[in-house]
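User: My collaborator sent over this chain with a note saying "see what the structure looks like." That's all I know about it. Can you take a look?
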Amino acid sequence: MNDFLPDTAPGFDQPIAVLKHCHGRIRKQISTLERLLSHLPEHGADEAARQAASAVLKYFEKAAHLHHDDEEQDLIPMLRAVAQGEDAATLQALAPVILQDHQDMDALWQDLHEQLTAIADGGAGTLSSSSVQRFSQRYLAHMEREESTMAPMAMRLFSPDQMTQLGTAMARRRGIGEETSAVQPTIGDAVADLRKDYGQASLNEDDVLDDPMLQFTRWFEQAISAQVNEPNAMNVATTDADGRPSSRIVLVKQFDERGFTWYSNYDSRKAQELHANPHAALLFFWSELERQVRIEGRVETTSAEESDKYFHSRPLKSRLSAIASRQSAPIDNRAALERNYEAVAATAGDAPARPSNWGGFRLVPERIEFWQGRRSRFHDRIVYTRQEDGSWARQRLQP
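Assistant: Without extra context I'll predict from the sequence alone. Here is the result:
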């Protein structure tokens, strides 16, 4: 099922050759996927199938995204800096297509990832032919676009120094570099050099709506359209009675003119902290769009009717988990937690009642800031502040 022969890679002194070599490895993985499709109906998830699925998973989880970063963070910006005339026009048309390809391929990969993981674990022996076909067609067309246009353009336009710059960036991304001194930097030192320059969009005063909730809705819909990974994930930051902060990621379940709603156990740490100080901060970060939204305000609990409605809309296992878990309380081990769940599942039936200590929280916003990443850390920031009469004042903040 797999080709285990050594595959000698060019050095990073030839960065365009490295990019083409990455394409060759991707084509091998796609070939493995296609062979896996014909293998599974006859042999199921046997040892050969499990090894093949594991190999494809390993490559696309650990290596393929580096190739995308090479293009997004180095190759395309460097080409934009030197391309002129017809080259500049070609790049202007091609670069958005390349970036959209990356997003689409990532989304297609998520579907395949689940199927391949099940095969690698020996738990399933099926692979969707349509999923493989869509994924392989998109990847092959994408690589052909780059090889026929971007790679030749780079070979024509880049100076030797620029080739060295590109190769060095690619090597550093993979944790490969030449020793320049007897003392090598620690990972803590290296963190200071991790940076990505933003430049997808801008945010001006004339771009935003008068109502920040409508503006948030617009951005949220754009995040969904861009297939952002979990656009509804938000950080909730709270403080205890002594002012010590804590934060965690939860999923917003509703937002409207009243505020932003999520659900949790009323005995959890966050709930206890909100009882002591009913003010909190939310943060949405949509890295794919280079955007974040910061929200601050007072938190209240939702009505019992609202909590009941949402609780009964959840999958049964999620409802049982909410009943079985004393959120944030210590427990001896995972086995004890599983026993609690099984005990609840055995007695609760198919329509368990919502526990009285579980329900919704709603943050009523008093301040909402929209942040759009810009080049050289000169970001756009527009903040709305609620006034005493309920209206919103708006202004730009310095980055």
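A starting point for your reply to your collaborator: The longest strand covers residues 358-372.
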